[in-house]
Amino acid sequence: MPRTDTIARAFLNYLYDEDDFRPEVAGFLASAHAGSVIPPPQRAELVEVVRLLQTRELVATGRESAEGLPLRAGLTGSGLICVSDHGGDVASWDGAAPVAVAEPPEVVPPRSPAEPTTVPRESLEGIARVARVALLALPTVHARYGEAEAVQRVANGLWEATRAPRPDPRRVRLLAAKLRSELGTGSMANTLGVVLMDSLDEALREAQLP
User: Fold this and answer.
1) How many Å from the N-terminal Cα to the C-terminal Cα in the chain?
2) Which residues of 86-119 are buried (b: 16+ CB within 10 A; e: fewer)?
3) Among the residues of the chain, which ranges form H helices?
4) Tell me: the pLDDT tens digits for 190-203?
5) Parallel, antiparallel, or unpaired for β 59-61 and 65-66?
6) How many angstroms separate the CA atoms of 83 and 18, rounded?
7) 0.85 exceeded by the pTM?
């Protein structure tokens, strides 16, 4: 992998793992992510990488800068998908087929009393990841008034449902269907919905909820 791509991958994962929505760009140089690159990246290399990622619309930055380096940066919706689905590998993300809005999944009939009342949390990791990506991406999405708040409520509920000690498959399924509906309507359908609906459908298939 070219050195620029290696540094870009480390930087994208740095942004993804930081608690701050837009962490300090220069902070990457002292992070464990930068330490994983041998030899460690220099400031001039980081300037080049950040410009590359801005061009690809994988990161968003403010206007403030110091010696050509933005003070803070955050992942865009595409950047979040690049990290969550491709591990931050920009070449892999570039080569991925464009994501299209899929047809709604088949409606699952209500469970019978004999069906399991919980599922292993590890089987819900994919659904949990989609919910987390939705929550992280919302601040970068331009949506009509009220739409972002509705998605945030549902995505937060879905995240909490997947992380419960004994996840209720029916609640997870209903919240996932609600999130899909929110992502597929209004202005969300052309922004966050485009990059997350297929991922949510795939995660539901992988979970094999009863």
Assistant:
1) 42
2) bebbbeebeeeeeeeeeeeeeeeeeeeeeeeeeb
3) 3-17, 32-35, 43-55, 77-86, 90-95, 125-137, 147-162, 169-183, 192-207
4) 778 877 888 888 88
5) unpaired
6) 13
7) no
